[in-house]
Design the sequence.
């Protein structure tokens, strides 16, 4: 929607969004029924906080304040839309980024899935994927200096012009 030099995405694989949406929809009654803490504990178990350095893990744990109302507001598009709507949105964003030749850096805490590799190759986006293995949902916190270097490199990206 707005001119950008690029996109930096930390551990949010576009190919995994439909799976996550389906999971959240299935858990919605528990979330709305007062069991958000249990649902969040399930999600948090997948974050691999133990992969973080001890001081960073402590910081995440001390500053984390998950709340059902906030999570539900963040997930509203996932909960309210159909799988077809979600796929159309993801494909539309990817097509726009590709058409505008927007650079896209995806930093993952694990190796990319075959679904992600397929999604990215099908989009034609100018994508660089960095998989910082075994760093969990917070690769930017597991490798702070490495992430700072990657961000600094994006400062050299120039806006590209397109013929739209």
Sequence:
């Amino acid at each position: 929607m707005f001119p950008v030099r690029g996109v930096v995405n930390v551990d949010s694989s576009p190919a995994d969004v439909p799976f996550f949406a389906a999971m959240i929809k299935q858990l919605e009654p528990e979330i709305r029924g007062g069991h958000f803490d249990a649902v969040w504990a399930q999600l948090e178990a997948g974050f691999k906080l133990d992969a973080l350095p001890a001081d960073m893990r402590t910081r995440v744990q001390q500053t984390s304040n998950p709340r059902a109302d906030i999570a539900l507001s963040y997930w509203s598009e996932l909960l309210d839309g159909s799988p077809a709507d979600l796929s159309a949105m993801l494909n539309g964003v990817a097509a726009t980024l590709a058409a505008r030749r927007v650079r896209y850096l995806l930093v993952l805490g694990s190796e990319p899935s075959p679904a992600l590799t397929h999604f990215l190759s099908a989009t034609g986006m100018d994508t660089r994927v960095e998989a910082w293995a075994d760093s969990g949902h917070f690769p930017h916190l597991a490798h702070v200096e490495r992430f700072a270097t990657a961000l600094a490199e994006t400062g050299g990206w120039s806006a590209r012009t397109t013929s739209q």
Summary: The mean pLDDT is 92. The two ends are 13 Å apart (CA to CA). DSSP finds eight helices and three strands in the chain.
